[in-house]
Amino acid sequence: MTQTVPTAQPFDEPAVATRTTPAVLVSYEEAVERARAIAPAFKERATQTEQLRRLPTESVRELLASGLLGLLTPRRFGGSELNLESVIDAVGEVSAACGSTGWVYMLWTAHMWLLALWPEAAQEEFWSNPNSLASSVVNTTGTPERVEGGFRWTGRGFFSSGVDHCNWLTAALNVPRDNAPPERLWMLIPREDFEILDDWHTVGLKGTGSKTIVIDDAFIPNYRTLRQVDADEGTSEGARIHHNPQYCVSSSTIFGVPVAAPSIGIARAFVRAYEERLRPKLNMTDAGLAMDQGATVVRYTTASTQLDAARALLMENARRFSRTRADQVSFVDRTRCRRDHAFAAQMARKSVNLLWEEAGGSSLYESAELQRLWRDANAAAAHHGLDWDWQAITWGKIALGLTRPPDTVRASDSTR
Q1: Which CATH code fits 134-232?
Q2: C-alpha span between 98 and 205 (Å, rounded)
Q3: pTM (2 decimals)?
């Protein structure tokens, strides 16, 4: 028997319909401070966010007004055009308050960078509303068909985080070609061309609303498409329009960097909450800490150090690869960067689980902050792009010369 999945209900007043103009943040310091200032409201709504299984409209409006969603948006379209480091730490602040809010904020912000690579007409259309938001799908069904002037697609996309609040969708699809392998294209699709299935019922990141979308014979004109190879090689039309070097870098190095940032923010919140519970329980004797307490302190120190190392790894890649043109980055470095994202997220997960083992029965109550953070930390690190085995094998095979790089990047693969 086929189960009917209900369709998500639209909002009476969607956040993207607001008439306010987003702030423009001018520095890393201002971005992090703004995130820190609005984070307490997200923490207060954390339970509500989980119950709604999506972000509350108030949270979306606050993110839009703050200017945090425009950190990577080109100045030409009202954005800050800041650096990836500001995104990593701003996402960390928001995620520490509410993992679901931090996850959706991260994806929306990362896609502002991607949208800056699209043809100019698509960018003009998207940012004609300064409060436009785009969700995404990369896991899809249905084969796009080439037609005059563009493509037609009937199918589904999965795990579209924050889609309830979005007026646009970006979809990564494999398009068949004659006598050649399929071509990977990103397609930009307006809200009226897809349905949302209300099927997000999960154990962690409950409030991300990462729902399934349904497409029925949508037409996507050519100007709303972006070739993945152009995004990887820094040769998109957007790279020619905007003069900032960050729009000429390889998407295969930096587009995934922010994905690991929520894991670090969530884990930092867990360590802080654990520390607050630990301090009153520590008893000093003439010989120092009791043996069992010493072991607990070692766990706390280990977890804190692992998080510092994970953040440092992300920040180093952000500084290097968001300023280096794609043709100057080897294929080995591209896979190394993706390896590092996964490693950082898994290190954050391990930090949380190391302390969770000693968190005690009181942490199991649904009202306990630790159990929410534990669920969210493990859910965030479960993202396919952060799978350690997959990324480790991919990089190892390349580094050991067991796999040749694709022709599109072989010319730039001069170093290891």
Answers
A1: 2.40.110.10
A2: 9
A3: 0.93
